[in-house]
Amino acid sequence: MLSQTEAGKVNKETAARTEGCRKKIIHEQGSQTDDESDQHDHSCKMYNTKLTDIQDKLNKMLSLPPEIQTLKKRVTELEKEKEELKTSLELQ
User: Do the Cβ atoms of 24 and 37 come closer than 8 Å?
Assistant: First the structure.
């Protein structure tokens, strides 16, 4: 599982790759044709969409550990309360 710092690094790397993808590729012979440029733009958009999906999933995963800890504490509290109630009933 990635920490918040590692997730930040991933986000920065993603942004850098996306920025690099936006730049046009210059061929040795000269500039690109319109078809190549459109194809490149389409590839960049698909790549961007996939990276955004991955980033969303990563953010969801990083939000789970605090929720799990909260639930564990609540379960512990409820178990303790249950034991106290059992003890209370036994004394009566």
Answer: yes
